[in-house]
Amino acid sequence: MSRAVLQARGIGMAYGTRRRPVTALHPTDFTVRAGESVAVVGRSGAGKSTLAEILLGLRRPSAGDVLVHGEHFCGHARGPRAHLRHVVQGVPQDAGASLPPRVPVRRSIERALLRLGVDGDPRARLARAAETARIDPALLERAPHQLSGGQAQRAAIARAVAVGADVVVADEPTSALDADTAAGLADALLALPGRTGGALLLITHDDALATRCDRVFTVREGKVEQSR
Ligand SMILES: Nc1ncnc2c1ncn2[C@@H]1O[C@H](COP(=O)(O)OP(=O)(O)OP(=O)(O)O)[C@@H](O)[C@H]1O
């Protein structure tokens, strides 16, 4: 069995106030292993995005902890640890907004590589990541607002691969794209575990896409269950 890259230990989320909590996620445990793809499906409002935000360290859970490579990453008592942030990367639906504005994408990714002290020539590393993300390298010379939604998502995949992410969390990445673009993006995402050895967590409403993943988690009214 391959090594655990991401572990949820009792993570739960209640919005609202202490007196009137609204449970979005019941305490949940699961492990995601290197090289696997996991789909997260469920009806609108079930708690999928809440789960994604917690795993990415963007939202502090009301309970529980997230471990990365067996090390504490974030949890109810503490925000994400900086030295592990790059290990879990997101590909959001509005990927353009997640990239630094007005700066050519290449520059912002290369800066991130230097900041993280990633080995090797940033340019060569990014060229390989662009290939994995199936994005034309010329598009990386543009600022995020000069990219289409699908191109920005590929740029976000390239960033994740370049910084050495071991877990990519994609939250409904294909839902705003036309059928051809969505199919191309889905192929690029599903190929990631095989190419990088990392894991993919794919939140989707698309059953056909979910069945292409190794496992499927279903979220029902905040309860996460493995359905396949
Ligand atoms: N900031 C917030 N404050 C209060 N309640 C929230 C907040 N964000 C989400 N919720 C509630 O938590 C529940 C889960 O929301 P979440 O966005 O995680 O669902 P989802 O499964 O991602 O839905 P969708 O598929 O429509 O994106 C919903 O009932 C939602 O109304």
Q: Based on CA inertia axes, which overall geometry fits? A: globular
Distance between the termini: 17 Å
SS element count, helices = 7
Radius of gyration from CA coordinates: 17 Å
CATH homology superfamily name: P-loop containing nucleotide triphosphate hydrolases
Helix/strand class: alpha/beta
In round numbers, the mean pLDDT is 95
Family: Belongs to the ABC transporter superfamily.
Pfam families: ABC_tran
InterPro entries: AAA+_ATPase, ABC_transp_ATP-bind, ABC_transporter-like_ATP-bd, ABC_transporter-like_CS, P-loop_NTPase
Domain ABC transporter: 6-228
List keywords for this structure.
228 residues; alpha/beta; 6-stranded mixed β-sheet; 4-stranded antiparallel β-sheet; 10 strands; 32% helix; binds adenosine-5'-triphosphate; ATP-binding; transport; ATP binding; AAA+_ATPase; ABC_transp_ATP-bind
Q: Could you give a quick summary of the protein structure above?
A:
With 228 residues, the chain is an alpha/beta fold.
Q: What does this 3D model show about the protein?
A:
With 228 residues, the protein is an alpha/beta fold. The chain has one domain (4-226): Rossmann fold (3-Layer(aba) Sandwich), CATH 3.40.50. 32% of the residues lie in helices and 29% in strands. It has seven helices and ten strands. It has helices at residues 48-55, 95-98, 105-116, 122-133, 149-162, 179-196, 207-210, and strands at residues 4-16, 21-33, 37-41, 63-68, 71-75, 88-91, 167-171, 199-203, 215-220, 223-226. The strands form two sheets. The chain has a six-stranded mixed β-sheet with strand order 6-7-8-3-9-10, sandwiched between helices. It has a four-stranded antiparallel β-sheet with strand order 2-1-4-5, with helices on one face. Helix 5 packs parallel to helix 6 (179-196). The radius of gyration is 17 Å and the shape is globular. The two termini are 17 Å apart. The mean pLDDT is 95. The structure holds adenosine-5'-triphosphate. Adenosine-5'-triphosphate is lined by residues 15, 22, 24, 42, 44-50. This is ATP-binding cassette domain-containing protein. Residues 6-228 form the ABC transporter domain. Keywords: ATP-binding, Nucleotide-binding, Transport. GO terms for molecular function: ATP binding.
